[in-house]
Design a protein that fits this description.
The complex is a heterodimer. Chain A is 35% helix and 21% strand. Chain A contains six helices and nine strands; from the N terminus they run αβββααβαβαβββαβ. In chain A, β1 and β2 form a beta hairpin. Chain B is of the alpha/beta class. Chain B has a single domain, classed as Glutaredoxin (3-Layer(aba) Sandwich), CATH 3.40.30.10. Chain B has a six-stranded mixed beta sheet, sandwiched between helices. Chain B is globular, with a radius of gyration of 16 Å. The chains are: A alpha+beta, B alpha/beta.
């Protein structure tokens, strides 16, 4: 009798815990996109990373462009630590050649993927640039929001993306998993 | 000759009216709360925009037209999320070029996130975004993304009935 009660309690607790966990985390499916050189990249290629940073970017958006150097520096600072940073361009008005020329001109060396027909932007419900999603190796969402708290680099007080990555790398709980900022609306088909 | 003077006077008055509207002020938190609460029996259409935002700029001719038609029943107010030190270099030239006929403010409420959450906690910050408050200052409509004249008109017409 006692054993049956304990088993029932364990089962109920597991169900409640699983339900609560499913409410608090969002999991994304694998996807494949081509970069501006024509090479295919799948999220699953980066399953061995400690974190995957996806940033929806643009070539014409002044806000996204204000972050070019900061994004590149974050990419360089964290790639050796096992963090994969990928840019995604979902703007219908920005072609693969626009993305290539923009990356060359602005010395962006991280991979930038072209999201034709904004399919991935729709899946992520991404709406502006630059908008950040940080995933764990199983594609669970760990962080969503801004790169930092000011479009003007000299006014930055909180480096949200860097702090989040540091917390992930040191195994700490992410202190601020959701942040907001103004950005350019993604131009969808 | 009399007609010419009359037309010049009318042109001058209209111009003065347009430019006096463009006395762009910096909006702090208290100012924002006053905007929402102090309704003179008019609903408030709050448009959040920036000079760097192409779809925001594209909405303005329709907002100007909307103000011409509904100004007795609707207060249209634009809050620019450019920086306060860009009033003279960016916001005013844009306002003057388009002869914007409603009041404009620039965000002076700390960082972006503070204004976003103050306006609407569900909003992620993508602009343009338009929020309509009823005559009691209650948020009754959230419109994310660029709209045209007809869609604004349809929403407003329903609310002022």
């Amino acid at each position: 009798m006692f054993k049956a009660i304990v088993i029932n309690l364990i089962v109920i607790s597991t169900i409640i815990f699983s339900y609560a966990f499913s409410l608090s985390t969002e999991k994304f499916e694998n996807f494949t996109l081509k970069d501006y050189k024509g090479k295919e990249h799948s999220l699953s290629d980066y399953k061995n990373s400690k974190a995957i940073v996806l940033i929806f970017v643009a070539t014409e958006c002044p806000v996204s462009n204000a972050y070019n150097e900061r994004m590149e520096k974050i990419y360089l600072d964290y790639k050796e630590k096992g963090v994969q940073l990928l840019g995604i361009n979902s703007n219908k008005s920005e072609s693969v050649s626009d993305i290539r020329n923009h990356a060359i001109k602005n010395n962006l060396t991280f991979t930038i993927l072209k999201d034709d027909k904004n399919i991935i932007a729709d899946k992520f419900k991404a709406s502006f640039t630059p908008e950040v999603f940080v995933l764990d190796p199983d594609f669970n969402l760990l962080y969503h929001g801004r790169i930092d708290d000011s479009r003007r680099e000299e006014d930055v007080k909180v480096q949200d993306l860097r702090s989040t990555l540091d917390e992930i790398l040191s195994g700490k709980q992410i202190s601020n998993p959701n942040t907001k900022a103004f950005g350019c609306t993604i131009k969808r088909v | 000759m009399f007609n010419l003077v009359k037309y010049i006077s009318i042109f001058f008055l209209v111009s003065v009216n347009c430019y006096s509207q463009n006395n762009i002020k910096i909006l702090d938190k208290a100012g924002f709360e006053n905007l929402i609460s102090q309704r003179s029996n008019k609903i408030l259409l709050l448009n959040i925009w920036a000079t760097w935002c192409v779809p925001c700029r594209e909405e303005f001719p329709d907002l100007i037209k909307l103000n011409d038609i509904f100004k007795d029943k609707v207060d249209i107010i634009g809050i620019s999320v450019d920086y306060p030190d860009e009033i003279n270099s960016k916001i005013k030239p844009f306002a003057e070029r388009l002869k914007i006929n409603f009041n404009l403010f620039v965000n002076g409420i700390g960082n972006d996130e503070e204004l976003i959450n103050l306006v609407d906690k569900d909003w992620n910050g993508a602009i343009p975004a338009t929020f309509i408050f009823d005559i009691d200052g209650k948020l009754v409509s959230k419109i994310y993304g660029k709209q045209d004249f007809e869609s604004f008109k349809e929403i407003i017409t329903k609310l002022i009935k």
